[in-house]
Amino acid sequence: MELDTAVFNDALNRNSVILLSCSCEIHYSGRAESFLGSGDRLIIIKSDKTLLIHQPSGSNPINYMKEGTSYVLAKAEGKLVLHCSNLPLKEFMDIFISKVHSFQQLQLEDSAKLQLVGSERDMSDMIYDNPELVEPGFRPLSREEHTKYGFIDVFGYDKNNILVVVECKRYAADFRAVEQLQRYVKKIKQLKGVDKVRGIIAAPEISANTLQMLTDNGFEYRKIAPPKYLERFSRGQKSLGEFQGVVKLSGKANRGRADFTSLLFGYRGKEK
């Protein structure tokens, strides 16, 4: 298809979101010097003048220009060239377009903010509000306790008035989590002038080797998953194949109906 440079540049001036699929080659100078030979790509220019160039596969752009970049589409020697320049950042890109597959200009609005839940901060809030998740008698004193090595997620006393440091991990705890806990416990001992400080890692999973390292250092593990307020699917939910197996093994129509009702109306299996 033919692409009118005037229409394209007018869309840029109106801060439209531009979607351009084309065959092109790319010359870039800035963060490094690079050249990308001819190929089919999707070029996205956002209303804030951010540019992303995507190849037909993969989630990351093959190249990009940051917010505030200036663009001009021109013709040179019979070819379309998109000149991109960001003078404050000293970044420049020329996109030589040999064939245009499609072009769209859109006026889009979106003021919504991403709602992130189930973070380690959410975990520490949950434990602070429900200290029995750690153990009976645990009394949290603070969250995000600052130390030289970072912030302790939850800090408090156990039922015997021994200081407890709880390090939260949203996913499986690894060796780095144990090393981080070691640093926090050591620092708290120095700051409080005590010999005994308990260290606990709270995470949904922990590997056997990490658990061994944890116990070798005199620390403990609590299986605690982050709150999942927006979760739509539980990995513990029975699959259809598992449901069919239950029905076959039971041999009872009532058992089958009960399991089928649970499957349809939100059965949640044991969290892993």
Q: Secondary-structure blueprint of this entry?
A:
Blueprint lengths: L4 H9 L3 E13 L3 E13 L5 E4 L8 E3 L4 E7 L2 E8 L4 E16 L13 H10 L9 E9 L2 E8 L5 E6 L6 H18 L4 E7 L4 H9 L3 E4 L16 H11 L2 H12 L8
Parallel strand pairs: 10-11, 11-12
Antiparallel strand pairs: 1-2, 1-7, 2-3, 3-4, 5-6, 6-7, 8-9, 9-10
Structure write-up:
The chain has helices spanning 5-13, 120-129, 175-192, 208-216, 240-250, 253-264; strands at 17-29, 33-45, 51-54, 63-65, 70-76, 79-86, 91-106, 139-147, 150-157, 163-168, 197-203, 220-223. Helix 5 packs antiparallel against helix 6 (253-264). It folds into two domains: 5-106, Protein Yojf, Chain: A (Distorted Sandwich), CATH 2.70.180; 120-223, Trna Endonuclease, Chain: A, domain 1. 25% of the residues lie in helices and 36% in strands. It is elongated. A seven-stranded antiparallel beta sheet has the order 4-3-2-1-7-6-5. A five-stranded mixed beta sheet has the order 8-9-10-11-12, with helices on both faces. The chain is built from six helices and twelve strands. It is of the alpha+beta class and 272 residues long.
